[in-house]
Amino acid sequence: MQILITGGTGGIGFAIASHFAEQQHQVIIADLHQASIDTKVAQLKQLGYHAEGILLDVTNADSIARCAAQYNIDVLVNNAGIQHVARLEDFPPEKWQMLLNVMLTGPAMLSRALLPGMRERNFGRIINIGSIHALIASPFKSAYVAAKHGLLGFSKVVALENADKNFTINTVCPAYVKTPLVEQQIAAQAKEHNLTEQQVIEQIMLAPMPQKAFIGVDEIAATTAFLCSDAARHMTAQTLVLDGGWTAR
């Protein structure tokens, strides 16, 4: 299968790319920075895996169109993400819009571009990397929470529209994963709440989670691969939550 992973050079994205590559699929690592793409593709090729890279801006229609024209994508993993932490009244409007463009409109438009090919081949899998914040909210994250909540509704609609084909779309929603993006959040929340970074981890991030542990990128990668397996062929419009029991409360 040809598998496109947006934000493919980051912690979660590259873990997913590596997992699929190990299963002998052709992975296409998509990101905004050519040097990072080249480095990650080279790492996979050195291991004998099939990997390519593409510069892709999910907020740019021309960039999306070029990607769709270049590949026959079987599996799309919408993983690209950014974060900004601030009270709503202090949230720059252009930053608020950018978060929605990257994490909601971008996945929708990229899915839109790739869906005709998936329908023509009668096979497609779209996996959105959501977040615990697709289900719950935290202060100072209005744009991020809005975007991730929106992914769930988007997925349900696309699932219904394509139920006549061998196609599924699902959203994987992990609690906090120790990635560079989360490291930045720790620093930002420490400043916002006037806490130390360790206090942010213990009192804010892991406090609601009964298992008191960050989610591993390997867990997310394996869950994503499962959604592409024959065993999950009738799982669609679903939200798979990896949260250590957080939402059971």
Characterise the protein shown here.
The structure is a single chain. This protein has 249 residues and is of the alpha/beta class. It folds into 2 domains: 2-175 and 215-242, Rossmann fold; 178-214, no CATH class. Helices cover 47% and strands 15% of the residues. The chain has 8 helices and 7 strands, in the order βαβαβαβαβαβαααβ. The chain has helices spanning 11-22, 34-46, 61-70, 93-121, 142-161, 180-193, 197-205, 217-227, and strands at residues 2-6, 26-31, 51-55, 75-78, 124-129, 167-174, 239-242. The protein has a 7-stranded parallel beta sheet, with helices on both faces. The longest helix has 29 residues, at 93-121. It is globular and about 50 Å long. The mean pLDDT is 95.
- The rough form would be described as globular
> What portion of the residues fall into strands of 2 or more residues?
15-25%
Supply the number of structural domains.
2
User: What does the radius of gyration come to?
Assistant: 18 Å
Mean pLDDT: 95
